[in-house]
Amino acid sequence: MPYMFVSTQIRLETGPTNVGDEYSDPAVMNYLGARKTTMLGNNFSEYHVDDPPRLVLDKLETMGFRVLTMTGVGQTLVWCLHKETE
Are strands 3-9 and 65-73 parallel, antiparallel or unpaired? Predict the structure, then answer.
């Protein structure tokens, strides 16, 4: 999967960081040390890590991902990353 979203709440900029959904690449999630959780009331799962976004972005860069864009949505920071396919 060449695209990925990373997000965190502004007040939680030191972590945890949301790094994927239930369809994310398991190899990438394993590399990040992410855990899959389902919040009560949601019908979908998300992957989270305790690392702050900066460390997550650094790790993803070593895997070949590059930040395409970043934005703030309400109290949430969101980064969109892309990895070139071979």
Answer: unpaired
Region of residue 41 (left: phi > 0; alpha: psi -120 to 50; beta: else): left
Write out pLDDT tens, residues 8-66: 988 766 778 999 899 999 999 999 999 999 888 888 999 999 999 999 999 999 999 99
Looking at 1-86, list the stretches that DSSP marks H as alpha helix, in order from N- to C-terminal side: 26-32, 53-62
Quote the pTM value. Answer: 0.86
Distance (Å, rounded) from C-alpha 29 to C-alpha 49?
A: 9
Are residues 80 and 2 in contact, defined by beta-carbon separation less than 8 angstroms?
no
